[in-house]
């Protein structure tokens, strides 16, 4: 069946118009100009952390602007290619074959770009802090937690996003009890928040000498990183702070001072551990920031729960188990909310999870729209 290029191109332009209405290139240009002024300030690097935030934000905003401009240019190029085919009958078949390939690539790329327009939550633009905890399943669960950590770090690497592992707690035999890391990218929280929930792995256990099938679980928590404009004051009287020596796998000493920090928020029982930084002061500051982020999310959830109660909305939240990774007796990764699936678990574990994330974002937006109706 011949492709109707004019209709396809018109559809792409309509989608891009929707994207541009949300992305607002002029707003981006204004932000870039402001960040460029800050980046050229002579005292910029007096505060390295603030300087890093400015240069990173500038790079991300410029990349986002370049991406939408280039996407519009690619549609123009496709249209010109189709017109060229009409003017050159001898080369038409070859040109149209190339145009068809470009059309399919454009559809996929614009679909990914369109996902960004669905991220309109209060904290969606922020960096994300992800915590992975092993659940039921013993050593297999600890190993699964480490597999998930690698999966998300590889996903970030594929996209060129900076990551920082903030805390790791190793299990005795293999794998991780828990790990916390930050993803530094625009809309990292909005994008990765659909990964929150319980993940399930089914496989022949490499730790079982009888080769039995084992089901294990790991929990993924995603929170937005606190910003200086947020107001989450925590009185010292509500904090319990313990210091201890950082350690790696098998208890190997990472340093010889008690620099790691465990911070407990007494009223809620929330506990945050940090050991990645070199000093106790740095770890304390990092732990406080993550604790504030979790309290911010808690406050937001309580506000939303109150609104639902007042509105009479008693719909259940997401189920505990949101995705299954099955390696035995067949191979499949399937999201139980969206029904999106992949028959290549190894590719998924190597960070190929955009399909799952995009399907999750669309599913969440549909759920939100249904709740508003």
TrEMBL record:
<dbReference type="Pfam" id="PF03462">
    <property type="entry name" value="PCRF"/>
</dbReference>
<dbReference type="InterPro" id="IPR004374">
    <property type="entry name" value="PrfB"/>
</dbReference>
<comment type="function">
    <text>Peptide chain release factor 2 directs the termination of translation in response to the peptide chain termination codons UGA and UAA.</text>
</comment>
<dbReference type="GO" id="GO:0005737">
    <property type="term" value="C:cytoplasm"/>
</dbReference>
<protein>
    <recommendedName>
        <fullName>Peptide chain release factor 2</fullName>
    </recommendedName>
</protein>
<keyword id="KW-0963">Cytoplasm</keyword>
<keyword id="KW-0648">Protein biosynthesis</keyword>
<feature type="domain" description="Prokaryotic-type class I peptide chain release factors">
    <location>
        <begin position="245"/>
        <end position="261"/>
    </location>
</feature>
<keyword id="KW-0488">Methylation</keyword>
<comment type="similarity">
    <text>Belongs to the prokaryotic/mitochondrial release factor family.</text>
</comment>
<dbReference type="InterPro" id="IPR005139">
    <property type="entry name" value="PCRF"/>
</dbReference>
<dbReference type="Pfam" id="PF00472">
    <property type="entry name" value="RF-1"/>
</dbReference>
<dbReference type="InterPro" id="IPR045853">
    <property type="entry name" value="Pep_chain_release_fac_I_sf"/>
</dbReference>
<dbReference type="GO" id="GO:0016149">
    <property type="term" value="F:translation release factor activity, codon specific"/>
</dbReference>
<dbReference type="InterPro" id="IPR000352">
    <property type="entry name" value="Pep_chain_release_fac_I"/>
</dbReference>
<feature type="modified residue" description="N5-methylglutamine">
    <location>
        <position position="252"/>
    </location>
</feature>
């Amino acid at each position: 069946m011949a492709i109707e290029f004019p209709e396809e191109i018109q559809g792409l332009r309509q989608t891009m118009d929707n994207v541009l209405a949300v992305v607002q290139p002029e707003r981006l240009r204004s932000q870039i100009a402001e960040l460029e002024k800050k980046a050229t300030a002579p005292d910029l690097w007096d505060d390295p952390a603030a300087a890093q935030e400015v240069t990173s934000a500038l790079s991300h905003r410029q990349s986002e602007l370049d991406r939408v401009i280039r996407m519009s240019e690619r549609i123009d190029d496709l249209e010109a290619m189709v017109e060229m085919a009409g003017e050159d009958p001898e080369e038409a078949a070859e040109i149209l074959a190339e145009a068809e390939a470009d059309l399919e690539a454009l559809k996929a790329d614009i679909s990914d770009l369109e996902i960004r327009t669905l991220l309109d939550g209060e904290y969606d633009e922020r960096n994300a802090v992800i915590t992975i905890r092993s659940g039921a399943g013993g050593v297999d669960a600890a190993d699964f937690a480490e597999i998930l950590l690698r999966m998300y770090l590889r996903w970030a690497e594929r996209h060129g996003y900076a990551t920082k592992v903030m805390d790791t707690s190793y299990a005795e035999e293999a794998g991780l009890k828990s790990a916390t890391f930050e993803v530094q990218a625009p809309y990292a929280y909005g994008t990765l928040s659909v990964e929150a929930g319980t993940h399930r792995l089914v496989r022949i256990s490499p730790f079982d000498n009888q080769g039995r099938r084992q089901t294990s679980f790991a929990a993924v928590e995603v929170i937005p990183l606190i910003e200086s404009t947020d107001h989450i004051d925590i009185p010292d009287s509500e904090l319990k702070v313990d210091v201890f020596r950082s350690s790696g796998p098998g208890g190997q000493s990472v340093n010889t001072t008690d620099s790691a920090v465990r911070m407990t928020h007494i009223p809620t029982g929330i506990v945050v551990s940090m050991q990645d930084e070199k000093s106790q002061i740095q770890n304390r500051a990092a732990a406080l920031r993550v604790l504030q982020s979790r309290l911010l999310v808690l406050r937001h959830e309580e506000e939303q729960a109150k609104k639902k109660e007042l509105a009479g909305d008693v719909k259940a939240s997401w189920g505990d188990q949101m995705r299954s990774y099955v390696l035995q007796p067949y191979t499949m990764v399937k999201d139980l909310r969206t029904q999106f699936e992949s028959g290549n678990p190894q590719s998924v574990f190597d960070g190929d999870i955009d399909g799952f994330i995009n399907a999750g974002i669309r599913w969440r937006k549909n759920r939100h729209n249904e709740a508003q109706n």
